[in-house]
Please model this.
Amino acid sequence: DGGITQSPKYLFRKEGQNVTLSCEQNLNHDAMYWYRQDPGQGLRLIYYSQIVNDFQKGDIAEGYSVSREKKESFPLTVTSAQKNPTAFYLCASGDTHRNTIYFGEGSWLTVV
Amino acid sequence: RKEVEQDPGPFNVPEGATVAFNCTYSNSASQSFFWYRQDCRKEPKLLMSVYSSGNEDGRFTAQLNRASQYISLLIRDSKLSDSATYLCVVNPGGSQGNLIFGKGTKLSVKP
Model:
């Protein structure tokens, strides 16, 4: 099936640890995105990448890092510098024909 | 003024009702518009694009008013399965990375 796969779906992290969220897509989309959603809040853009080996900061990039070594993959690392990492993380890829984006199922990160 | 504003609701309606949501946007140069649906603790899913001439998909109708800078979503004959949060999304131009999401309007359809 074509789509966007995020893993893990649920992740618990101790304070001070880095954690990496995986995002893979087989839609042949050039652009990929990471968003964060907090309860009752809108989506906020963390990072995005329009092409392999290039990415740009979004509105809330501090405490996060990404890489884009392959077109299909856009992993997000939540570092210990991120002060409030507990949230729902959504990866998306962009359809230039429809000029919109499609989401993976999301990853729930909880810091304990 | 917030970039994309929606009434958070909740809108509580009986099955079979017609319900309408509005969304306003601040950037008059915005180029494309969408409605997404998000179920509780799930990812947003594209419901429909919004075209200048208005468009319909089954029980759903979307309209754009550029002069007043708002878009609307009308749901006819509401079903229990329509219960969700509806997100208004605006692309002010340029790349898809510029998409601006509203916080959503929650709809609850009751039997």
Remarks:
- The two ends of chain B are 37 Å apart (CA to CA).
- Chain B touches chain A through 21 residues (CB under 8 Å).
- The mean pLDDT of chain B is 92.
